[in-house]
Amino acid sequence: MKTHLQITAALVVALAAPANAREVVIAWDPNPPSDQVVKYNVYEMKGPGWSQIGETTDNRFSVGDRNPGLYEFAVTAVN
User: Fold this and answer.
1) Edge-to-edge strands of the sheet including 11-17?
2) How is 2-34 classified by DSSP, letter by letter?
3) Can you give the pLDDT at residue 52?
4) What count of other Cβ atoms lies within 10 Å of the Cβ of residue 75?
5) Which residues contact residue 46 at a Cβ distance below 8 angstroms, ignoring those fewer than 6 apart?
6) What is the pLDDT of residue 56?
7) Per-residue pLDDT, 20
8) Spatial distance between the Cα atoms of 72 and 79, rounded to a whole number of angstroms
9) Residue 51's pLDDT is what?
10) Could you give the CA distance from residue 78 to residue 40 in angstroms, rounded to a whole number?
11) What's the average pLDDT block by block, 10 residues per block, for the chain (79 residues)?
């Protein structure tokens, strides 16, 4: 089962993965074309700081191998 989350800001403060989810899909509103975004970097809070876990040219990103719990993600646009 996938969990979908619509991000309206650059930072997701908390995301809870339900008991039956193994993959979490985060999605956000894309930047306007005038921003000339070439990719989005995706980060996860791990320990004392943020770690980059991937990048995408789309406005969604799948995070797999998740156990039930609370996770924090951030997305930044790169132009």
Assistant:
1) 11-17, 69-78, 39-46, 49-56
2) EEEEEESSSEEEEEEEPTT-SEEEEEEPPPPGG
3) 93
4) 21
5) none
6) 96
7) 66
8) 24
9) 92
10) 6
11) 43 56 82 90 89 94 82 88
